[in-house]
């Protein structure tokens, strides 16, 4: 019969064995690839490196293909909980040194258990992905495991924030769990994500492409839009996750962390009066406005590499977290295309789910025209923005900076889409379409019959601009609450946001709306 001392020694040995993962050689190989180990990532993620690891001694139950006697420490995934910024967060970290971090049934069960705990505790969940994919030796049990992970991703959606870090390979069905989560951070060079790898594609279609070209960080962030943030290395990815969490509430019943002192800083910035060019065809950088309006050094852009014609970001105003949706005239003149529609809609729905007020900055000439856009479904995709803003019940404030034409203006959260406050700068042009297009339609025959058609057209354009392309027509019809000096934008937003703190927006009871996916 074992003594207490012997039992304690056995526990120490088992703990040491689990800490070694796949063994010293594989841990060293991980480091040579500029990758942290599963445990190292969690130590860096949590405050003071402390986390409570759960399910350390779980064992797989596979018996086929020589698996019966195979030892897989922690079954290839470390799961636990701890504090980040003083707040409870649950996490899983796949261990590539243990059978390539492959997902079997018990591996998946560990992840699902930790997700269920996050759901019940109302705390965020972070998944660090570094896996070769399904554990083929476990067959359909691996498939069943993935299905349960996807199921729990869906249960957590809209209840607690979910963040995925792609720190290694994430191929095949494994890619769908990050896709079901709220934000994806990918480490460049080491992180890769795709459904079918280069070899599969070559066999199926004859196309040749490298893994990095197919599923690397930059292509996933800029082309497909699957990835929200690109990290330099594991440490940078973890820092991005920590920063992101600082803007988010723990769950959908709470407000985001506030740094408010209770004082509204009604700062006026004269430079804002000079940002918009005299010629409405000239672009300018929307960030020149945003950085002057919101609290210094608090703008945290999301999806910065994708659909650059629209900006989505978190920021703070008087210490309170807000979500920003803004057109970017530097890209495609700020027109909304398919990708911009998807990007903005997803961000709006996230902010609404987690009680984050929305502020729009509008300078949009319309939806981007073109055969490719029409065939790609710009109508359906653009409708997502209309749906998302209309369905949002958080405080919604819009600032019309310059162009606000047609349905694209509505899609940026006009008064008729439920905006609580709408202010326009004197440079605002709120109209069904631009003056050039409107004149061509309204005065076609008059221009054609004029002695000097070019001169006549120019006169009519100037007349239309003076009468209709201003904020005053819309203000006169109650579509705009106020026309303000640009320098007073922060003061306007501060008062508006404070007055909407107790906003309640009751909607008809239903299971859920049917967004045009």
Descriptors:
single chain; 517 residues; alpha/beta; 2-enoyl-CoA Hydratase, Chain A, domain 1; 3 domains; eight-stranded mixed beta sheet; seven-stranded mixed beta sheet; 17 strands; 17% strand
Number of domains: 3
Structural class: alpha/beta
Distance between the termini: 64 Å
Shape summary: elongated
What's the layout of helices and strands?
Layout: H1 4-19, H2 24-32, H3 38-45, E1 52-54, E2 77-84, E3 87-94, H4 105-121, E4 125-129, H5 140-156, E5 162-166, E6 169-171, H6 176-180, E7 183-187, E8 192-194, H7 198-205, H8 211-215, H9 217-222, E9 229-231, H10 234-245, H11 287-293, E10 300-302, E11 310-317, E12 320-327, H12 338-353, E13 358-364, H13 371-376, H14 378-391, E14 396-405, H15 406-411, E15 421-424, E16 429-431, H16 435-442, H17 444-448, H18 453-467, H19 471-476, E17 482-483, H20 489-499
Parallel strand pairs: 3-4, 4-5, 5-7, 6-8, 7-9, 12-13, 13-14, 14-15, 14-16, 15-17
Antiparallel strand pairs: 1-2, 2-3, 10-11, 11-12
What does this structure look like?
The protein has 517 residues and is α/β, with parallel strands linked by helices. It has 3 domains: 4-245, 2-enoyl-CoA Hydratase, Chain A, domain 1, CATH 3.90.226.10; 270-433 and 470-499, 2-enoyl-CoA Hydratase, Chain A, domain 1 (Alpha-Beta Complex); 435-468, no CATH class. The chain contains 20 helices and 17 strands. The strands form 3 sheets. Strands 10, 11, 12, 13, 14, 15, 16 and 17 form an 8-stranded mixed β-sheet that branches. Strands 1-2-3-4-5-7-9 form a 7-stranded mixed β-sheet, with helices on both faces. A two-stranded parallel sheet has the order 6-8. The longest helix is centred in the first third of the chain and has 17 residues, at 105-121. The N and C termini lie far apart (64 Å).
């Amino acid at each position: 019969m074992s003594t207490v001392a012997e039992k304690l020694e056995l526990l120490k040995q088992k703990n040491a064995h689990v800490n070694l993962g796949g063994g010293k050689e594989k841990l060293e190989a991980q480091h040579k690839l500029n990758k942290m180990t599963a445990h190292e990532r969690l130590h860096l993620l949590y405050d003071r490196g402390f986390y409570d690891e759960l399910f350390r001694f779980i064992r797989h139950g596979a018996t086929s293909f020589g698996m019966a006697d195979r030892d897989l420490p922690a079954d290839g995934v470390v799961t636990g909980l701890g504090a980040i910024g003083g707040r409870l967060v649950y996490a899983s970290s796949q261990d590539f040194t243990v059978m390539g971090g492959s997902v079997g049934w018990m591996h998946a069960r560990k992840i699902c258990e930790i997700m269920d705990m996050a759901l019940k505790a109302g705390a965020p969940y972070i998944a660090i992905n570094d896996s070769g994919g399904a554990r083929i030796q476990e067959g359909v049990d691996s498939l069943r495991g993935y299905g349960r992970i996807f199921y729990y991703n869906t249960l957590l959606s809209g209840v607690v924030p979910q963040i995925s870090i792609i720190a290694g390979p994430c191929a095949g069905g494994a890619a769908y769990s990050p896709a079901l989560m709220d934000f994806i951070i990918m480490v460049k060079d080491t992180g890769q994500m795709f459904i079918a790898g280069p070899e599969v594609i070559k066999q199926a279609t004859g196309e040749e492409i490298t893994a990095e070209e197919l599923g690397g960080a930059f292509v996933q962030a800029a082309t497909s839009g699957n990835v929200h943030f690109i990290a330099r290395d594991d440490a940078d990815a973890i820092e991005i996750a920590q920063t992101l969490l600082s803007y988010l509430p723990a769950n959908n019943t709470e407000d985001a962390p506030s740094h408010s002192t209770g004082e509204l800083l009604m700062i006026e910035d004269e430079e804002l009066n000079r940002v918009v060019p005299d010629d409405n065809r000239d672009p300018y950088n929307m960030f020149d406005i945003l950085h002057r309006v919101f609290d210094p050094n608090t703008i945290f852009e999301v999806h910065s590499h994708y659909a650059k014609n629209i900006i989505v970001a978190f920021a703070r105003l008087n210490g309170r977290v807000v979500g920003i949706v803004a057109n970017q005239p530097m890209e495609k003149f700020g027109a909304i295309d398919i990708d911009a529609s998807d990007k903005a809609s997803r961000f709006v729905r996230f902010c609404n789910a987690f009680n984050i007020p929305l502020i729009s900055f509008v300078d949009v000439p319309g939806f981007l025209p073109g055969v490719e856009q029409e065939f790609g479904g710009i109508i359906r995709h653009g409708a997502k923005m209309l749906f998302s803003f209309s369905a949002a019940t958080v405080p919604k404030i819009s600032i019309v900076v310059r162009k606000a034409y047609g349905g694209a203006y509505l899609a940026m959260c006009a008064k008729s889409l439920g905006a609580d406050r709408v202010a326009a700068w004197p440079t605002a042009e709120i109209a069904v379409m631009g003056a050039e297009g409107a004149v061509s339609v309204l005065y076609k025959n008059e221009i054609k019959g004029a002695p000097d058609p070019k001169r006549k057209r120019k006169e009519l354009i100037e007349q239309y601009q003076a009468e209709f392309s201003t904020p005053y027509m819309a203000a006169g019809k109650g579509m705009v609450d106020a026309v303000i000096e640009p320098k007073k934008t922060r003061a306007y937003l501060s008062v508006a946001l404070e007055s909407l703190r107790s906003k309640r927006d009751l909607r008809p009871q239903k299971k859920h709306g049917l967004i045009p996916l």
